[in-house]
Amino acid sequence: MYRLFSWEHSYFSGKARAYLRYKAYHGALGEGFEDVFATREILERVLKPATGSQAVPQLLAPEGTWVQDSSEIIDFCEARHPQPPVIPAPATRPLQCLASYLVELLADEWMVVYAFWERWHYSLEGVEPNHERFNAQQWGPLLAPTGSGSERRAMARFLFEHVFGIKDPDNARIGVYAGIRDLGVHAGTRAAWEASHARLMEQLEAHFDQHDFLLGGRPSLGDFGLLGPLYAHLFRDAVPGFTLRTRYPLVAEWVERTNGTNALNARSYNQKLYDVDETGQLVAKCATSHAGEWLPDDAIPETLAPVLGVFFEEMWPVLASSMEVLAHYMESDACKKGAELPGKTFAATPGFEALQSDGGALTHEFRIGEVRDRRMVLPYQVWMLQRLSDALQACRATAEGEARVSELLDRFERGPELLELPKRLERCRVKKVQSRIFADV
Ligand SMILES: N[C@@H](CCC(=O)N[C@@H](CS)C(=O)NCC(=O)O)C(=O)O
C-alpha cells in the first residue's frame, strides 16, 4: 500500500491527501494508502535518510520509490493510475487542462502568502483575535506524539520560540517570521495582501454558488491545489477559519466536499443523494452538481475567469520577473552549471539567506495592489513553470487547441505572454531532484 507521510496542519499535505483519498475512493490505488503522521522521529530517522529532506508530504510507493512535492506526487500517481483522471486531457480539453495548472500554481505559490501570514500573525502575543493556543496544540504532536495535552503544547511553544522566532518576529533571521518578510509581507504591504485575499475569496464564493468544483461536478488538479491554502490554514486555523465559515460559507463547504470527509451536508463525490419514489423507496442519484462531471465541450465556467484574472494580474508579473532575475543570476559568475539553488517555498532556504533576503541577488521588486516592495525569488516556481510549459505545449498540439488556448489567453491583458514560456525558460532551466533544485543551464 502507498504511504503518505504528512501532518494535518500542513498546507501541501492537505493537497496530496485529498487527491489520494479521491483516487482511493475510486479504487485507483490498488490497496489504497495509509496516511502516516510524520513525527520528528520519522522525519529524522526515515524521511531524511531516504530523501535528504524532512519536508512533508512525501509519498512512499509500494515498491519503495519515494516521491516528494505535492505536484510530483500527483503526476506520479496519475501516470500509474490514470482513471479517473484529475487533469483534463490536453488533446480534448485544452482549456480545462490549462486552467487546472494555472489554479494549482496560484494556490501553491501565491495564496501561500495569505495562508502563512494568517497562521503566524494571529499567533503573536498581543494580537487579537488570537489562535496561538490552537496553533501550539496542532504543532505539538509532531514533537511529543504521546505527550499529554499540555506537554504537547509546551513542546510546540519551544519550537515557536527557538526556531520560528515568535518572540521577536521583526528581527527574526530564520524561521516563519523571516519567511513572511522574505515573501513580501510587513506592515507596509499587509493591507494590500489582505485586499487581494478578500477579492479572491469573493470570486471563489461566487463560483461555488453555481459549481460544486472548479470545473463542474467533480474535482480536478486545481481543486486539490486550492485545498493547500484553504484546508490546513484558512479552514482549520481558528481565526481565518472563523472568517472563512462566516463570510465565505460556500468556500468552507467546498473545503469539506473536496476533502471528502464528514461532508454529508456539503455533498461530495463519495456520497449519493436520495429521492423517495411514489412507493416510498429510496432512489439514489449523484450528489454533486453537473451530474458529477466536468462541464461538457471543454467549457471554462464564467465564474472561474476572474480567478484566472488574478493569476495574470497579480502573480504572472512576479513569475515573469522571477525568470529574468534567476536567468541573470545563473549567467553570473556566482552560479556554476549544475549548482544547487534555493528550494523552499515558505522561507529562504538555509544557506541561501544572503541571496534571498535583504536585497540579495535572488530578490526582486514586486507589486501587490498599489504597493511596490521586494521579495525573494523562488526557483521552485520556475520548476512549476517548466511543468506548466510542457502542459501548455500539449494543449496547443492541435490547430484547434492552439486557437482555443489563444482565445482564452487573449481575455487577460498579460495572458498572451504565457505563450512565450518556452523561450523565457531557456535561460533559467532548473532540475529538481527530490526537494532540491539545481541550475540546468
Ligand atoms: N512544494 C512542496 C512544499 C512542501 C513543504 O514546504 N512542506 C512544508 C509543510 S506544508 C514543510 O514540510 N516544512 C518543513 C520543512 O521544510 O522542514 C510541495 O508541494 O509539497
Using brief descriptors, characterize the structure shown.
single chain, 441 residues, alpha+beta, Glutaredoxin, three-stranded antiparallel beta sheet, 11 strands, 50% helix, globular, binds glutathione
Secondary-structure blueprint:
Blueprint: E1 2-6, H1 11-25, E2 33-37, H2 40-51, E3 58-60, E4 66-68, H3 70-80, H4 94-109, H5 111-121, H6 132-143, H7 149-162, H8 176-182, H9 190-210, H10 221-236, H11 238-247, H12 249-259, E5 272-276, E6 282-286, H13 305-331, E7 340-341, H14 353-356, E8 363-368, E9 371-376, H15 379-395, H16 399-409, H17 421-425, E10 430-433, E11 436-439
Parallel strand pairs: 1-2
Antiparallel strand pairs: 1-3, 3-4, 5-6, 7-11, 8-9, 10-11
The site of glutathione has 14 residues, from helix 1 and helix 3.
Bound molecules: glutathione
User: For the CA atoms, what is the radius of gyration?
Assistant: 22 Å
Round the mean pLDDT to the nearest integer and report it: 97
Count of individual helical segments: 17
The main sheet orders its strands as 2-1-3-4
Strand fraction equals 5-15%
Helix content: 40-55%
Give the ordered list of helices and strands.
EHEHEEHHHHHHHHHHEEHEHEEHHHEE
Shape: globular
Distance between the termini: 38 Å
Main sheet overview: 4 strands, mixed
Low-confidence stretches are none
